[in-house]
Amino acid sequence: MPIKIPVELPAFKVLSSENIFVMNMERAKTQDIRPLKIAIVNLMPKKIQAENELLRYLSNTPIQVEVKLIQTKSYTSQNTSLLHLKKFYNYFDDIKGEKFDGLIITGAPVEQMNFDEVLYWDELKEIMEWSKENVFSTLHICWGAQAALYYHYGIEKYPLKEKMFGVFPHWVNNPNADITRGLDDIFYAPHSRHTEVKREDIEKVEGLEILSESEDAGVFIVATKERRQIFITGHLEYDRNTLRDEYLRDIEKGLKINVPKNYFPNDNSDCTPMVRWRGSANIVFGNWLNYCVYQNTPFNINDIKNMTLI
User: Catalytic residues (predicted)?
Assistant: First the structure.
């Protein structure tokens, strides 16, 4: 079913070329249904790439999805044109009076910093607090997951000896859980981070459930029991070449970086990377939209205010 985005957004052309059903705003207005309202707080440096990646998977839903892109006011991206940001993005102040069925908070390349050292930390705290009464279900990705686990539950992040970088096998702890339903016994997902959260810290918090883990990458998917908060420590949304681009970027900067594991054939960075996670990404994003958002969010979106999260 369609995802509802402006025809001028770069993702419209990209997704249309992949035969993904995207609908322009004018056509969407003629359909007499309430779309899911999803906001994306895009903290990634390459915002257009992140848009393409996330919108690809948000198209996998039974009804229209209306997306609003959010940028931080306290920090302006240096890797995305100001014209693009001005045309397609909102500030939090612009949308905080609205209700949303779903919210996505992306990762960001700041995990080696203390949370309170991040320029937009105070702004992100305000967004996370606001989400408790104004969003039905929030999906946090990578650093966004670590930030939310720390803000909501005081769960710390810990530095790794070396970057968790590559595509790793994972298993599902509860095959009947809604967010992981349909995943293979062993499935793959990309990771790109310098820090981790630990199982023993999460297990101390009543109401949190570890749904998926990896022997190599550790805790992967965590959720509250009512699925109002989802935390994913990796990057299921990544495209084929995203890890490659990060690897080449770090090489060009002269940083010490290993070849991403289980990614290039024979670890040869001249080869085309292997995609092992696309099916799993479709399942997880589809499950979130279907089971955690669509089937449970109130039809009258204003009723979310009476369903305080924490």
Answer: 142 (acyl-thioester intermediate), 235 (proton acceptor), 237
User: Domain locations in the chain?
Assistant: 3-159+195-239+278-306
Answer yes or no: is 163 a known binding residue.
Answer: yes
Active-site residues, by number, are: 142, 235, 237
Angstrom distance (rounded) from CA 102 to CA 135: 6
Q: How far apart are CA 282 and CA 197, in angstroms?
A: 25
Q: Report the alpha-carbon distance of residue 128 to residue 135 in Å, rounded.
A: 10
Classify each residue of 225-247 as buried b or exposed e, where b means 16 or more C-beta atoms within 10 Å of its C-beta.
Answer: eebbbbbbbbbbbbbeebbbebb
- Check residue 302 and report its DSSP letter: G
Query: Is residue 244 annotated as involved in ligand binding?
Result: no
- 166 closest CA partner among 261, 78, 93, 258: 261
Please give the model's pTM, rounded to 2 decimal places: 0.89
| CATH-assigned architecture of domain 3-159+195-239+278-306 | 3-Layer(aba) Sandwich (3.40)
Task: From residue 97, give the alpha-carbon distance in Å to each of 100, 214, 215, 255.
Answer: 10, 39, 43, 43
* 131 annotated binding-site participant: no
H-state helical runs in 154-291: 199-203, 242-252, 278-287
Degrees to nearest 5, angle at CA 235 with 141 and 269: 150
